[in-house]
Amino acid sequence: MHLNRKGFTLFQMLMVLLIISICLLLQPKTQRTKTSLKYETMKLREWILQAQEKAIFDKTNVSMMIEDNMISSNNKTYSLAKETTCGSHHISFNHRGNTNQARTIECRQGKEKAEIVINLGAGNIYVR
After folding, report:
1. Alpha carbons 44 and 48: distance in angstroms, whole number
2. Which residues, 6+ apart, have CB-to-CB distance to 76 below 8 Å?
3. In this predicted structure, what is the pLDDT of residue 104?
4. Which domains occur in the chain, in start order?
5. For residue 27, what is the DSSP state?
6. How far apart are CA 1 and CA 79, in angstroms?
7. Which of 59, 80, 115, 123 could bond to 95 as cystine, CB 3.0-4.6 Å?
8. Residue 120: per-residue pLDDT
9. Residue 100 pLDDT
């Protein structure tokens, strides 16, 4: 009896899958190197909240300066991703964590933009 030998055997199929798998493993990673604007603005929001909490817990006035992607507060300096800019802002909290000026901080990353809103008084902070 003569069998028709057209097609792949199981061994040949496994070898093809092995070669494809190795090629995919050797392929360079194509992950985005820049961080997302949403992540960067949430990070900035957290730093602002930390300054507000410090003012409340230490019962003192706390100031924060934002210059493009550099943030300084209480002799500490933080930086956002280099492609993220948030303009120039001075934020201050009194000993109760209240701010004396409402503000909207607009952060940009290329054509994307996000806003951090700080409400007057209680200083509620949110990202939109």
Report:
1. 6
2. none
3. 93
4. 37-127 (3.55.40.10)
5. S
6. 76
7. 59
8. 85
9. 83
Q: Beta partners for 103?
A: 118
C-alpha distances in angstroms, 95 versus 47, 61, 100? Answer: 17, 5, 12
pLDDT score of 18:
86
What backbone phi and psi angles, to 5 degrees, belong to 90?
Answer: -120, 120
- Tell me the chain's radius of gyration from C-alpha atoms: 26
Instruction: Tell me the backbone φ, ψ of residue 122, rounded to 5 degrees.
Output: -60, -15
Would you state the pLDDT for residue 34? 60
d(Cα 44, Cα 62) in Å, to the nearest integer? Answer: 16
b/e code 34-66 from CB counts within 10 Å (16+ = b): eeebeebbebbbebbebbbebbbeeeeebebeb
- Which tokens sit at 7? 């097609």
Tracing tokens 């493993």 back to the chain, one arrives at 25
Q: What is the 3-state secondary structure (H, E, C) of 6-19?
A: CCCCHHHHHHHHHH
pLDDT of residue 5: 66
What is the pLDDT at residue 74? 81
Q: What is the pLDDT of residue 115?
A: 94
